[in-house]
Amino acid sequence: MYDTHLLAASVTTMSAGRLGASVAAVLGLIGVVVGGLALARPGAGNARRRPAVAVTAGLIGVVLGGVVVATSDSGIGTGNGRGGAYVALVVGLVSIVLGGLALARSRRAG
Q1: Which of 22-36, 44-58, 76-90 has the highest mean pLDDT?
Q2: Alpha carbon distance 7, 13 (integer Å)
Q3: How far apart, in Å, are the Cα atoms of 74 and each of 26, 28, 34, 86?
Q4: pLDDT digits (tens, 9 = 90+) for 53-74
Q5: Do the Cβ atoms of 5 and 70 come closer than 8 Å?
Q6: Whole-structure pTM value
């Protein structure tokens, strides 16, 4: 009767795309927080560890978000995680930029 791959997933269903996009967004968010802390307190603790963590978390988030976008077969709101993957791409890029700025600052200071 209905073509099942065109129907949207239930709100409570955690599909593989939603899970991948959620993990990517959380990694990107962790990178943003760590990168922001590294910029706010450049001399606290290991000055190069925080920026490296921020860049790494951002890169993983961008790659995972890109994989979800590339493999989802329908649009936003269908349960494939495409909307979350776009969020993960943006948050991951912000994480990479913050980590890069903090890393550049730590290299100048060192």
Answers
A1: 22-36
A2: 13
A3: 23, 24, 33, 14
A4: 999 999 999 999 999 888 887 7
A5: no
A6: 0.79
